[in-house]
Write a structure and sequence with these properties.
Number of strands of chain B: 6
Radius of gyration of chain B: 12 Å
CATH architecture of one domain in chain A: Alpha-Beta Barrel
Structural class of chain B: mainly beta
Number of domains of chain B: 1
Oligomer: heterodimer
Helix content of chain B: under 10%
Distance between the termini of chain B: 6 Å
Number of strands of chain A: 22
Order of helices and strands of chain B: EEEEEE
Largest interface: A-B, 17 and 12 residues
Strand order of the largest sheet of chain A: 1-2-3-4-5-6-7
Strand content of chain B: over 45%
CATH superfamily of one domain in chain A: Metal-dependent hydrolases
Shape of chain A: globular
CATH topology of one domain in chain A: TIM Barrel
Number of helices of chain A: 45
CATH class of one domain in chain A: Alpha Beta
Chain lengths: 1074, 83
């Protein structure tokens, strides 16, 4: 620990987005180790790191100073430090104005805005740094420092404009106050530093301004410079070989120790003193106890949120239950009491109100998550899970003991989610509502692309490498992945060229790269949000705060998730289509429909919400799902935790009666009966703790949280002793109590929230009903809302056909914006015009409008006359190639030949006249009249469709290849179910979603589906086979594949255990298998 | 005008603070009367270059010169001589 006193007042973390090269955790640890008095976080134009920094610094015993390096109009920098909460609020307002007053991603604070905000807070001749001589700190609560070389004053001094520098310094002094504006001296060994420093010293003397020594820190250690330099190149879109003014000339901007700074400024001790004085005058700015929760505007006549919430809840209870039983009343009273004591009445009313708005507007929504543990939420129609009927514990959602903030998540029809968020904004005010941000961090793929480009590596090599890296891969794990993954190991990529890249990727792993917008999270505040967070504009045109969901709560804000769920959009479309022709009400879908359950049991659930993945389909067949509870359990079972924890097989065995259902204690029977003695849901852990050991519900939830997050450690041991002791007091044998605790411990980390599973299972069942009874309408709807669900459109089309629904290609007169159902026997789905590659919204609207006003399109000529532009030549060509004009002229090649000529005629003698001449010459060369042109072969037509639609509506590649495949011994997917288990088979198809879920052993197992003309063949590839053939599986695009392997059957679930994998075309060569 | 050079220098003598006090060029002794500026340049670190330290010096002959220490080579070089 150094005895020299110093504080770094200018430090950039990775939250400076590509301009900070040391993890905040590491920098804070280093600052504490070096014995700094304080550290000020001054990222560029944001305070996104503030909460994390605050937490880390306090833990490390370091004083955190919140600040930012603000970009002023003209690109000049100014370092601002918050003396405390008031200064932090001023800083947030200034940053907000910098962002919202300028082009997105180019924040710039105008002098006027600076004057207004600082002046409004009461700037000017404020008090001393220590709150001394001048009579306390100024109302704006800031310290301003003159900044780095890009600060206005240093830049003027460097340019030799001393008089202007003097004027500028005087201006800042007058604005912030003489004790709140200081001149920043940086001895970072840049050319011209002496001139700048001499100038600053002169200004200090003439204007009576404090000098402060800073080091414009961008990385902790000198040795980190190279990482920062690469990040700078990535930020400035240049390469290390190129010169750029923003690249640092040397490695001096590191976190120098107090001793080093003292030596460096030995001849200028006032600057060292100045830094310490400023630091001493700053106190932590974060206020963890602050509460900015929204206030719900009560209707006239209502006097309190609590009373109004009770009124609405009871009204809802009558609607939900008809007769409200004493049990229900007691439950609602308990919930309302807890909600009231924690002060969340306004929050519930806010969510109730926005759900009511959605209902009035006919917008589909469904509450999910642990909020479904609340009977109040159910009565308010926020959720559709009857928590009382299911016996769900409210304390899983909220408890006095935990006291944390509740998190209500509601899914909305994707198309209207923003409208609902807009309603909230309009109701509470633009300054009180914002989206929650996300920190997009460096993963392996993004690190390879960004840093590789900065290092000047070949783009094609980087692309190949990035595409072979798993999406989730950590940027620090690339060298290990090269050994472990065959698609990388056997890729032939020149890895020796990438050594520095991999080192750099490891160093930036997890660094925030840029700020994004959370898909659903919004915060609503009682006061303007700019008191605690700057706001900026997101790409989608909404205001976003600078903190992610983890940190907004530390600011005193409460978040709610308004999520988009395309399934609800599809349900809405299907329900509307159905309601047109016959009486149909989605909400009135009958419970336990036998045909629907039989379909689920057969694992035929492609397109069903949450139940469609291969693992889910196999589970349904193995489970013999027959009731709603099976669906709830299924949603909870197919998760990484239960799979990794080997929970699935024992559950199935008990469910099917193949294993006895036993209970360690009679008290467990009512709790675990529905899950056959297995602890599957988090709520069950709570119930057991209450029933066996007499825990209070809130205590029980604390136990669950510890079990989930910190299973090994002293806290867990303490809880174990407490549980066993309390259970023993209630007469439970100690050994039995210990076994029960061990059982809970084993499952709690894998357990899933039952309320959430039940909410999803409800939608799963209803969508299954739609698939079973209205496949044309529902598949048309989900095809219209891609991307959604597990499968690509081609697979959905195959499945629709398997269910007897015809699929017809796009037609310029019959297709719409969405996939449409054409009545008939069989009914058919018409592919939408939007599916055609390159089709833009405006062009599509023009086609539809033209049909509406001028009637059907009579010919290609007519189409071009009416729709081009806005339909471009490329899109018109694509329409021809996918058969959209087949009904008018079936010869696609002839139409294609005519197209340029027709387009030329349409353009007359304008600038395109020359092109028309070329096209005409071309036609002449190929033999004159296009009438003589022979159409594309079926294979060519199909290839065009795959290229331009992603699939072939009326054909399938595998059907085309089937004769050759059959000759080579390949069986279609539909035949697999009829073949005996153990038989060696060959299957081929288009690979669908090869994936490697986590396994208990850690060994790789790859699952993929092969789509052929009849459906899907499920393939399992174990480690050894994967290591041999993995290079074929995880490439982008993945080619059609052939698999040879042993047929395995478990109940109705059939899969091929691969022994050999190859591309389909190679497999059709006579030499395969060798 | 300045004459650029990467000419090796011999006999660079340093003051206790590590700054050049004198050096020899073409056999002639150049005494440093003032260190006007010091800066550092990381150079092409990706090619293994070390961070060079540059000194802009006024010599007792009223000449302005810039010299640098290349840590990789462990040698001093003349960088620029101003007319």
């Amino acid at each position: 620990m150094s005895t020299t006193r110093f504080a770094h007042l200018h430090f950039h973390s990775p939250f400076s987005f590509l301009d900070g090269a040391t993890r905040l955790e590491d920098a804070v640890a280093e600052a504490a180790r070096a014995g700094l008095e304080a550290l000020a976080l001054t990222d560029h134009d944001n305070v996104s790191g503030a909460v994390l920094f605050h937490r880390l610094a306090l833990k490390a015993g370091l004083r955190p100073i919140q600040g930012a390096e603000v970009t002023l109009e003209g690109g000049r920098h100014l370092t601002l430090l918050a003396r405390g909460p008031r200064g932090y609020a001023t800083l947030c307002r200034l940053l907000t104005r910098a962002h919202l007053g300028a082009e997105r991603r180019r924040p710039a604070l105008t002098w006027t805005a600076l004057e207004e905000e600082v002046g409004r807070s009461g700037g000017g001749a404020g008090g001393g740094a220590g709150g001394g001589a001048g009579g306390g700190p100024p109302a704006h609560g800031l310290f301003a420092l003159s900044g780095c070389r890009r600060g206005e004053i240093p830049a003027l001094l460097w340019a030799g404009r001393a008089d202007e520098a003097y004027q500028a310094a005087a201006r800042y002094r007058d604005l912030f106050g003489p004790d709140s504006f200081a001149l920043e001296v940086q001895r970072d060994f840049l050319p011209g530093a002496a001139r700048v420093e001499d100038g600053l010293a002169g200004l200090s003397e003439r204007l009576g301004l404090r000098l402060v020594a800073t080091n414009n820190v961008h990385f902790a250690a000198k040795a980190d410079f190279w990482v920062h330099d690469i990040l700078t190149c990535a930020r400035t879109l240049t390469t290390i070989e190129a010169v750029h003014p923003e690249r640092r000339l040397n490695a001096e901007n590191h976190l120098k120790t107090p001793r080093t700074m003292s030596d460096l400024f030995a001849d200028l001790p006032a600057a060292l003193r100045g830094a310490v004085e400023v630091a001493e005058a700053c106190e932590p700015s974060m206020q963890p106890d602050r509460r900015l929760h929204p206030a719900f505007p009560l209707p006239p006549g209502e006097t309190s949120a609590a009373a109004f919430l009770r009124k609405m809840t009871l009204a809802g209870a009558t609607h939900r239950y008809g007769r409200v039983t004493p049990q229900a009343t007691r439950r609602l009273d308990t919930e309302l009491d807890i909600i009231g004591r924690l002060g969340f009445e306004d929050y519930f009313l806010l969510v109730w109100d926005l759900c009511r708005h959605a209902t009035r507007r006919g917008i589909r929504f469904a509450g999910r998550g642990s909020a479904a543990d609340s009977a109040v939420a159910y009565c308010l129609s926020i959720t559709n899970v009857d928590a009382i009927a299911r016996g769900l514990l409210f304390e899983r959602f909220m408890s006095l003991e935990r006291g944390g903030k509740p998190d209500i998540d509601v899914d909305f029809d994707t198309r209207y989610r923003d409208e609902v968020a807009g309603y909230v904004t309009a109701k509470y005010g633009e300054d009180r509502v914002a989206a929650v941000s996300t920190y997009n961090t460096f993963h392996a793929r993004s690190a390879v692309r960004d840093l590789g480009k900065a290092l000047g590596l070949a783009p094609e090599d980087l692309d190949r490498l990035a595409k072979r890296l798993p999406h989730y891969a950590d940027a620090g794990s690339i060298p290990q992945l090269l050994d472990a993954l065959p698609e990388l190991r056997d890729s032939g990529l020149p890895f020796w060229k990438f050594e520095r890249l991999f080192l750099a990727a490891e160093r930036v792993a997890g660094f925030p790269r840029h700020l994004g917008t959370h898909l659903g999270g919004i915060v609503v505040g009682r006061d303007p949000l700019t008191e605690v967070t700057p706001l900026q504009m997101a790409a989608k045109g909404v205001r976003v705060c600078q903190f992610d969901k983890e940190y907004v709560e530390d600011l005193g804000l409460i978040k709610l998730d308004l999520l988009s769920l395309r399934t609800l959009s599809a349900v809405d479309d299907a329900a509307r289509d159905l309601a047109e022709g016959k009486p149909f009400h989605y909400s009135a879908i009958p419970d336990g429909d036998p045909a629907t359950m039989a379909m689920i049991r057969a694992g035929e659930t492609i397109g069903v919400f949450q139940l469609e993945s291969p693992a889910q389909r196999a589970l349904q067949a193995k489970l013999g799902a027959s009731e709603f509870e099976d669906l709830v359990a299924s949603v909870a079972l197919i998760r990484p935790g239960p799979i990794k924890g080997n929970m699935v097989a024992p559950f199935i065995a008990r469910r099917r009666g193949l294993e006895p259902v036993t209970f360690l204690h009679p008290a467990l029977e009512p709790i675990l009966r529905k899950t056959y003695g297995v602890v599957l849901y988090q709520e069950q852990v709570l119930e057991i703790a209450i029933a066996v050991a007499g825990f209070a519900p809130g205590e029980a939830d604390q136990l669950r949280r510890v079990m989930t997050h910190a299973r090994h450690g002293p806290e867990m041991e303490r809880l174990g002793r407490l549980f066993v002791g309390k259970a023993a007091e209630r007469g439970v044998e100690e050994e039995v109590a210990r076994s029960i605790f061990a059982c809970m411990e084993g499952y709690a980390s894998y357990g899933f929230c039952e309320a959430h599973a039940a909410a999803f299972a409800d939608t799963a069942y209803r969508t299954a009903y739609l698939v079973r009874h209205h496949p044309a309408e529902f598949y048309a709807a989900i095809l219209s809302h891609q991307p959604m669900g597990y499968y690509p459109p081609g697979t959905l089309c195959v499945e629709a056909k398997r269910r007897g629904v015809a699929v017809r290609g796009p037609d310029v007169n019959r297709s719409g914006e969405r996939y449409l159902v054409e009545e008939g026997s069989p009914p058919a789905i018409r592919v939408s015009l939007a599916q055609v590659k390159g089709m833009r919204r405006q062009a599509l609207a023009a086609v539809l409008a033209s049909r509406e006003t001028a009637g059907p399109i009579a010919s290609l000529d007519d189409f071009i006359r009416r729709c081009c532009p806005p339909v471009t030549r490329d899109v018109a060509e694509n329409l021809v190639l996918v058969g959209a004009f087949d009904a008018l002229d079936g010869n696609r090649r002839r139409l294609l030949w005519r197209l340029p000529v027709l387009l030329g005629e349409r353009r007359g003698t304008d600038a395109a006249g020359e092109r028309r001449g070329d096209d005409q010459r071309l036609l002449d060369e190929v033999g004159g009249a296009p009438d003589g042109v022979r159409d594309f072969t079926p294979e060519e037509r199909m290839r065009h469709e795959y290229d331009l639609l992603g699939f072939s509506p009326e054909h399938h590649l595998l059907a085309y290849l089937r004769p050759r495949l059959a000759a080579a011994g390949f069986v279609p997917s539909s035949d697999l179910v009829r073949l005996p288990p153990g038989r060696l088979v060959k299957v081929g198809g288009l690979p669908v979603r090869p994936h490697r879920p986590p396994t208990k052993t850690g060994r790789t197992i790859v699952f993929l589906s092969l789509e052929d003309e009849a459906g899907l063949a499920e393939v399992t590839i174990f480690e050894g086979t994967y290591q041999r053939y993995g290079r074929l599986l995880f490439t982008d695009p993945c080619p059609p594949l052939a698999v040879e392997g042993k047929l395995e059957r478990r109940d109705k679930a059939v899969s091929v255990i691969a022994r050999r994998v190859d591309t389909l075309y190679r497999a059709l060569e006579p030499s395969w298998p060798a | 005008m300045a004459e650029a050079s990467d000419e090796p220098l011999d006999g660079v003598r340093l003051a206790p603070d590590g700054r050049p006090r004198s050096f020899r060029r073409h056999g002639r002794l150049w005494r440093v009367s003032r260190v006007a500026e010091v800066w550092k340049d990381a150079g092409c670190w990706w090619e293994g270059e070390g961070e060079k330290t540059f000194f802009r010096l006024e010599t007792d002959g009223s000449r302005l010169v810039e010299i640098y220490l290349d840590p990789t080579a462990g040698k001093w070089f003349l960088y620029r001589v101003y007319d």
